[in-house]
Amino acid sequence: MSLNASATLLDRYSESNPDGKVARATNAPVAQVTDRYIESGSFVKLKNLSLGYNLPKALLESIHVSQLRIYVTAQNILTWTDYSGLDPEVNFFDNDNTKQGIDYGAYPASKSYLVGLGLTF
């Protein structure tokens, strides 16, 4: 056999398994309509965070600097969700508005961190 499938499909509906949780097996070109794959995409995300600190002027006078700012910025830090996919902010296929909210397995947004120093003489 050239195609593999999840073992979950063994629990598909059939005459001998009328309580199966997966749609019946078929080779029809049209996908089976089922609510099996619908789940809550609710989430809370800490998407952007920026923290900075200006050092006191009294401390900076001795090194002839008028301002020194230290900062940290982070993006896509944490996501709280029960969603089983990679990212609850799912994509939609080929900019087709009829397929919004369908997860086509896109990679989640990458995390990024930036540490910086702002210096004014």
Q: What would you say this structure looks like, in words?
A:
The chain has two domains: 1-38, no CATH class; 40-120, no CATH class. Helices cover 3% and strands 30% of the residues. It contains one helix and three strands. The protein has a three-stranded antiparallel sheet with strand order 1-2-3, with no helix packed on it. The protein is rod-shaped, with a radius of gyration of 26 Å. The termini are far apart.
Mean pLDDT, to the nearest integer, reads 82
Number of strands: 3
Q: C-alpha Rg, in Å? A: 26 Å
Contiguous runs where pLDDT drops below 50 for at least 5 residues? none
Oligomerization category of the chains in this entry: single chain
Architecture blueprint of SSEs:
Layout: E1 43-54, H1 57-60, E2 67-81, E3 112-120
Antiparallel strand pairs: 1-2, 2-3
